[in-house]
Design a protein that fits this description.
This protein is α+β, with helices and mostly antiparallel strands. Helices cover 42% and strands 22% of the residues. The protein has one domain: GAF domain (Beta-Lactamase, 2-Layer Sandwich), CATH 3.30.450.40. This is Phytochrome chromophore attachment site domain-containing protein.
């Protein structure tokens, strides 16, 4: 059994531990600020666009990602944690979004899209879809998507502009740039 003096057992007296704890705390604060910004953005978009769902699809590795945030008109539309159709989103689609592609689909049943894409959208109850990229200097960070689940929806240029502005706001936030 060893007996330590107060200064030896108190982690706050060790500058390396203090620095490590401060880094953890700083990262936690940045994450909380980032999450709050995303939550507010998705909520505001859903309410303003009057859609059933707005989601943030975050890419965590080489075009693999998942829905990490969602704002819902009703909990029955939740797809939180959904990873998407991996075989459908490939380098070709990634290149389009890297180039700034905006995809507005008024009705997935009438739009000429790949079968795997249509089947995926059906599986998550999407009838109309508006997707904009979140581009940061390192590349494609994620996708911001508005989903109308119950019926077709024509997307106006104002709807598209609003989504692009929201994506740009997220893309330039320091807490997202550092994540």
């Amino acid at each position: 059994m060893q007996i330590y003096s107060q200064s030896e057992s108190d982690p706050s007296s060790n500058p390396h531990i203090e620095q490590g704890l401060q880094r953890v705390l700083d990262r936690l604060v940045r994450t909380m600020h980032r999450n709050e910004l995303i939550r507010q953005t998705t909520d505001q978009l859903r309410q303003t666009l009057q859609v059933d769902r707005v989601v943030l699809y975050y890419f965590y590795w080489q075009w693999h990602g998942q829905v990490t945030f969602e704002s819902l008109s009703n909990n029955k539309f939740s797809i939180l944690g959904s990873t998407g159709a991996d075989n459908c989103f490939n380098n070709d689609y990634a290149a389009l979004y890297l180039a700034g592609r905006v995809r507005a689909i008024a009705d997935i049943e009438l739009e000429p899209i790949q079968t795997c894409h249509r089947d995926f959208l059906r599986s998550i109850q999407v009838r109309a879809n508006l997707v904009v990229p979140i581009l940061i200097p390192r590349g494609l960070w994620g996708l911001l998507a508005a989903h109308h689940c119950q019926e077709p929806r024509s997307w106006s240029s104002l709807d598209i502009e609003m989504m692009q502005t929201a994506a740009q706001t997220l893309a330039t936030d320091s807490n997202i740039l550092e994540s």
